[in-house]
TrEMBL record:
<feature type="domain" description="EAL">
    <location>
        <begin position="23"/>
        <end position="278"/>
    </location>
</feature>
<protein>
    <recommendedName>
        <fullName>GGDEF domain-containing protein</fullName>
    </recommendedName>
</protein>
Length: 278
């Protein structure tokens, strides 16, 4: 939700300010980026405090631009969304993340899950359900290991349509996550009506835990979200956990899953093996 409204103008001011390219040219660059294999997926571990091991990974895309080096998704995802190219990028991430996870399963790490971010544009795409099914079948992956991350904003923008698609996805057997929870303006009552398996507490709440400016309210909010999820049998993932102290507090609150620099930054697939063996 934070990144909504980032315009192309801001994009030009950012990574690509050296040259002014026309919108069409940028679109073709982005489209070609997929074909030319310039999109790379990094994986960030999600750690289970209960089992003391990595339980899965979130797939996070980067654009390895031949001239500009690695470009953050915060720079190009909003542009790709405006242009619709996000559907092709998203499809690539979906297929590649499933394929990669199956490979880790084959190597013996068969408890792992993979979380894939889904943009609003993708969810509107009538092909989306079919693509998810195809990605799972192509990889030979059991659906429950694929977690799809949707933001509150996406779900609330078009409630009836989103709910229908979410039900179809649930029928396939994949798990659904609410990403960046707490950053939108949605009412808590939505949570009980949506077929959600996992809720990710946004990193802004976690970073307000135990820092200098932290107060009782921040702690109470996080605690309340965790308790609410326990009542609703929704799994919680705390995002952006950076310190052992934050990790310890979350554990005390009964939060089972964390993601953040305290465990590891997102890494290339080749480096995942080291994390699993550590
Ligand atoms: P997100 O889905 O909320 O992903 C979490 C972001 O927080 C990632 O940034 C991750 O690197 C960063 N992060 C993780 N742990 C920590 C921590 O402990 N401290 C701090 N400060 N940051 C942490 P990243 O990889 O730059 O991705 C940014 C956003 O781009 C993602 O936010 C997501 O909204 C979007 N994105 C990334 N990959 C995809 C994709 O394949 N499709 C779509 N539609 N969006 C994507
Ligand atoms: Ca996410
Ligand atoms: Ca998030
Ligand atoms: Ca986000």
């Amino acid at each position: 939700a934070k990144k909504k409204g980032r315009s192309e103008t801001e994009f030009f001011k950012g990574e690509m300010n050296q040259f002014r390219i026309e919108r069409l040219q940028l679109e073709s660059y982005l489209r070609h980026a997929v074909v030319k294999n310039e999109m790379m997926i990094y994986y960030q571990p999600q750690y289970c405090l209960h089992d003391s091991r990595i339980s899965g990974f979130e797939a996070l895309i980067r654009w390895n631009h031949p001239l500009h080096g690695i470009i953050s998704p915060r720079e190009f995802i909003p542009v790709a969304e405006e242009m619709g190219v996000i559907c092709e990028i998203g499809k690539y991430v979906l297929f590649e993340a499933c394929r990669q996870l199956k490979d880790w399963h084959n190597k013996g790490y068969d408890h792992l899950s993979v979380s894939v971010n889904v943009s609003g544009r993708q969810l509107q795409n009538l092909n989306f359900i079919y693509e998810v099914k195809e990605a799972l079948e192509t990889a030979g992956l059991q659906p429950k290991y694929l977690h799809l991350e949707l933001t509150e904003t996406i779900m609330i923008e078009n409630v009836q349509h989103s709910l229908n698609i979410m039900k179809e996805l649930k029928a396939l057997g994949v798990k659904l996550s609410i990403d960046d929870f707490g950053t939108g303006y949605s009412a808590l009552s939505y949570i009980k009506d949506l077929p959600i398996d996992i809720l990710k507490i946004d990193q802004t709440f976690i970073q307000n835990l135990l820092n200098n400016g932290s107060n009782k309210t921040d702690i109470a909010i996080v605690k309340a979200i965790i308790t609410m999820c326990q009542v609703l049998s929704v799994d919680v993932v705390a995002e952006g956990v950076e310190t052992p102290e934050q990790m310890e507090l979350l554990k005390q609150f009964g939060c089972h899953h964390i993601q953040g620099y305290v465990i590891s930054k997102p890494v290339e697939s080749a480096a995942v093996r080291c994390l699993l063996e550590a």
